[in-house]
Amino acid sequence: MSRKCTRLGLSAGITALALTLTACSGAATSAGAGASNGDGTEAEPIRVAVVSPHSGPYAEFGEQQRAGYQFAADEANANGGIDGRRVEIFVADDLGTNEGAVAAAQRLVQQKDAKFIVGTIATPTTLAVMQRLASWDALAFGTQSQGDALTGESCSPRFFRTNVNDHLLIQGVGKWLAERDATDWDSVAADYAFGHGSAEGLQQVADAKGWSVDKNLFAPLGTTDYASYLNQLDGGQGLLVSLSGGDSVHFLGQALDFGTLDKYDLIVGNAAMTTSSLNAVSDERLIGKYGTANWGPTVDAPESQAFVEAFSEANGEAPADFTGAAYMAMQTIFAGVRAAGSIDPSEVATALDDLTFDSIKGEVTMRAEDHQIEAPMYMGKVEKVGDRYDLVIEDTIPMSETMPEPDPACSMPEL
Known about the structure:
Elements: E1 3-5, E2 20-21, E3 25-29, E4 46-52, H1 59-78, E5 87-93, H2 98-112, E6 116-118, H3 123-130, H4 133-136, E7 139-142, E8 159-161, H5 166-177, E9 184-190, H6 193-209, E10 212-219, H7 227-230, E11 236-242, H8 245-258, E12 264-269, H9 275-281, E13 290-293, H10 302-315, H11 321-340, H12 345-352, E14 355-359, E15 362-366, E16 373-374, E17 377-385, E18 388-397
Parallel strand pairs: 1-14, 4-5, 4-6, 6-7, 7-8, 9-10, 9-11, 11-12, 12-13
Antiparallel strand pairs: 2-3, 3-5, 13-17, 14-15, 15-16, 17-18
Helix pairs in contact: 1-11, 2-3, 5-6, 8-9, 11-12
Signal peptide: 1-27
Family: Belongs to the leucine-binding protein family.
Keywords: Amino-acid transport, Signal, Transport
């Protein structure tokens, strides 16, 4: 049975506040009243460890996320903190490797006492951090890692996913495609958990609906030359592109040059049509293509639009899609702290189980059985909005239409 926690109100705007960062790690704190312990001392702050890439194919995502974490902290502190507790952000570069992420997270936990970890992107990186959470007495919150295993066979009582997973996205795509005519598909995907999960999901949908998937191509992470893959994509009714970050930029740019996208009636990107990728390619020929979204600045929900307006006022531009994903993770942490009345990781984890709270995706629930957020996903169409390209949300696919039962492989141990 879910429990309800009220949401921190979004401010109309945030003034610029000081930010201090070092090359590999640092802290960002904002002015704001802290709670008193009754003896005149300030209550211990909520310390968040942001472990994200500063270089490599996911560097842009890391930058977008850091903007979201910082904005959430600034906003909370400007409103008196969370239950009066100041929010502090500590940042470290994961160096683009699993080992780098583990080392960075451990440093922030041990040196800064930052017990709430966010920012990892690739599923294997998130899994590497998850395996150390118990020894650190810390919690981690997934914002972009989509691999089903994180809330399936590798689930952890200390990990909470605040974004959709591969299954949810592909099931959502399947329901969206049911109203369209494409029944003959090709797929190109990243050669790791995310890409394989996406391709397998498409195959499952195709099998259930009697469609065909003719080509399943996988490219290593960091591929820069897609010629050998593009030469194999000879056209059809539909093409699913499950690449992200720099990989999607290289693929889309080269696919346009090769004329590959013109060979298909319908192009759908799974994590490929992000704000950063679209504007890195910056080609009007992408207009009209479709993509999945965990969230986007055009989501038609009051909480979402309030966030977009406040962020835009503070930063002079609308938030990118993964800025919103980061903000959502912070909303989850804040809801857990409020419900627990504590920042003790074990108490916050317990409080989050089946907790319902308001977010930029509306009312959501953190499912206790596997720690997968119950929230909608979105489908959008590429358009040019002002001077930038965006995936403009056209369809909201409710959780009730895509959310499976908890994976039996997830045997959630006690904390």
